[in-house]
Structure formats: structure tokens, C-alpha cells
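Quick one, T. Sequence first:
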Amino acid sequence: MVIKKFSRKYIDDVARIEQVCFSAPWSRESLAGELDNPSAQFLVAVENAKAIGYVGIHISLGEGDIMRVAVLPQFRRTGTGRALLKECLASDKLDRVFLDVRENNIPALRLYESFGFRRIGIRKNYYSNPTENALMMMWKKTENEELL
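C-alpha cells:
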């Protein structure tokens, strides 16, 4: 597995990952739009010339907002998500990063906490299909550089 910058070559793969992983998937057009977004940094995990996972973050003035982290089910628990997140957080453009996660997504919570993300709030009924609260989390580079 190799981590690469998201490009048009992987749009169909990432659109498929969206369909498999999210109850409200982004469209192929929305994903393609991120390629032209100057604040977006999207990375893909590639195996056998196909994207098997990806992470997307928007960065502005040292702060990042992770929009998506997704790995195809058959590649979960293989270190793919960890590799994507590590590469994403290693950006020298980041001082703080925020994300939202379903409160019952225990594997994701464990992954984020292992990188030093901490819970800072709750968004009530943020997600649908099923309705669920989002935990708001934050990471600071100065507190967690040794984890990268």
C-alpha cells in the first residue's frame, strides 16, 4: 500500500469508497471539485493501482478540518486508516485539526485518540441514517508531534 495525492485518476475509486462507507455519500462531482479547491488536501491509499481508502482535509491559516476518512471494509484493521491519518497530520501547514465522528464509531474514536485527538464537544443528532450525535474532536501539533 502506498499513500498518494488524490488525482483525477482515483475519482471513480474514491466515489465507490464513498458509496460503500457513508450513509450520505458525496457525489463524484463533489469529489472532483475538491481537486480544484486550493484549501483541500486529499490523499489516497493505493493498492494494486486502486484506491482502497482516503482522507480529505481543508486547511486554512494553520487549522485543518478533516472532512472524510474512509477505508473499504475489506482493508480495515490493516493500518490503512492509520497511514492516511499520519500522512495527513504530518503537513507542515497544520497547527490544529478538527473533526467530527459518530459517537458510536468506536474503531474510529480509538484511531483518533491514538493520535492525540481529544473530545471537545457534541453535536446533537448531527448524523442521519441512523440519527446519531457527533463527537467534536481536536488535535494540536505541539502536543502530539511525537506521535507522528
